[in-house]
Automatic annotation (TrEMBL):
<dbReference type="GO" id="GO:0005344">
    <property type="term" value="F:oxygen carrier activity"/>
</dbReference>
<dbReference type="Pfam" id="PF01152">
    <property type="entry name" value="Bac_globin"/>
</dbReference>
<keyword id="KW-0479">Metal-binding</keyword>
<keyword id="KW-0349">Heme</keyword>
<dbReference type="GO" id="GO:0046872">
    <property type="term" value="F:metal ion binding"/>
</dbReference>
<protein>
    <submittedName>
        <fullName>Group II truncated hemoglobin</fullName>
    </submittedName>
</protein>
<keyword id="KW-0408">Iron</keyword>
<dbReference type="InterPro" id="IPR001486">
    <property type="entry name" value="Hemoglobin_trunc"/>
</dbReference>
<keyword id="KW-0813">Transport</keyword>
<dbReference type="GO" id="GO:0020037">
    <property type="term" value="F:heme binding"/>
</dbReference>
<comment type="similarity">
    <text>Belongs to the truncated hemoglobin family. Group II subfamily.</text>
</comment>
<dbReference type="InterPro" id="IPR012292">
    <property type="entry name" value="Globin/Proto"/>
</dbReference>
<dbReference type="InterPro" id="IPR044203">
    <property type="entry name" value="GlbO/GLB3-like"/>
</dbReference>
<dbReference type="InterPro" id="IPR009050">
    <property type="entry name" value="Globin-like_sf"/>
</dbReference>
<dbReference type="GO" id="GO:0019825">
    <property type="term" value="F:oxygen binding"/>
</dbReference>
Amino acid sequence: MTDVQALTPYELLGGEAVLRRLVDRFYDIMENDQRAAGIHAMHAKDTTLIRDKLFEFLSGWLGGPQLFIEKYGHPRLRARHMPFSIGEAERDQWLLCMYQAMSEIAMSDELREHLEEAFFKTADFMRNQ
């Protein structure tokens, strides 16, 4: 991300409002795309809380306010995801939803590539199967 070194991915994305739109679109896709049925089944019917948690986590992860850490402490991502069976199929379903949501948000190619790589690494790290 060489174009504006001083800005965080959070700022380059557009801050709070755009991140909220990304997270909401991610869960909307998950709820409505049959290709994501496996990971959708892992979530409660009401996704209000998990939408907020993902938004809060991504805020800090992208270099914005550390909302998740302030509320819940260290994310401990693998530990929080251990109760769920996550293999390549689940990873790929999660990425399908996130990449689709990202495709609907205006951003530079450089930021998109950076986020796709970072999301892949993180999603792959969640695999426990």
